[in-house]
Please model this.
Amino acid sequence: MENEARKKRIFSGIQPSGELTLGSYMGAIKNWVALQDEYDCIYCIVDMHAITVRQDPAQLRRRSVAQLAQYIACGLDPQKNIMFIQSHVPQHAELGWILGCYTQFGELSRMTQFKQKSQQHADNITAGLFTYPVLMAADILLYQADLVPVGADQKQHVELCRDIAQRFNGVYSDTFTLPEPFIPKMGARVMSLGNPDNKMSKSDPDGCVYLMDKPEEIRRKFKRAVTDSETAVRFDKENKPGVSNLLTIYCAATGKTMEEAEEEFAGQGYGVFKPAVADAVVELLRPIREESERLMADKAYLESVYREGAQRAQYLANKTLSKVQRKVGFAAR
Ligand code: ATP
Ligand code: LTN
Model:
């Protein structure tokens, strides 16, 4: 409709580099679900980002499809959102190359994720790991996204994306929409259960809860969660990082405020508190796991969703890419 105001656009993605965790759910996917009615949303499975560290090919292939099943099971409706696999839309790589020529070496050297990952993979620090944020900027800018719902750890990458877009717009006149990060108030940074000073991450099986974990597994992980030598259930990030993390998880899982949660457990010890957090997470994840398992049995359906998603995404991506190619001076085809 010509006179219908364009809905604001959202783009976000997660790497199929491991199984999805409670961190990816609370930091990102939960927000995606909340935003799908109000915005025009594009959600991607970023397999090209995943190969910046070594992956097992069979696992990567399986996980990319499993991740789509989990997106849908979390409540993302394929009718309302475009969902696709990044490598199926080659425009991401093409724009990524061009944007790399408008990004400074120094900017990329300052990225916290690069510094961390190059320490973790010291024997394989590839050029791809270094230029990872450029490909991420291409993901976002190709679709002229207004908002990028991510966990707090990705804020720096979205800011770099804005800088690159602004620079390009400055040289060639307005080309890209400047995106804003959209970070949840509760659950923006879920910490590891085993080491509450680090963020919960896919690659730390004991510290993290996977969306596909069975109830017994979830209860076992919470039972072993690190707390402290006091007994009070109170939010104090500095001095009680473990308990504060559990409280954050509890609030994000139940929708309660921090005050309500603290009041609920006032005068009760960790022996009551920890199983209550585990129960809340078990109930949160049960329908997601069951629905994912059901969807994984229907490969033809999943295939139809990601194929159609890639087609719709390509149509939008091409509009931006051809504009960019013309502006930088590539000869017309
Ligand atoms: P890896 O360990 O391979 O780096 P990851 O577990 O950090 O992976 P990503 O794929 O990098 O997960 O992140 C997916 C999305 O979930 C991003 O938007 C990220 O900000 C968010 N996210 C990941 N971990 C957490 C966490 N612990 N708390 C809150 N949000 C998170
Ligand atoms: N870097 C992100 C994944 C990612 C992404 C994106 C997120 C790749 N491209 C575009 C938002 C928008 C991560 O590690 N979680």
Observations:
- The first strand starts at residue 9 and ends at 14.
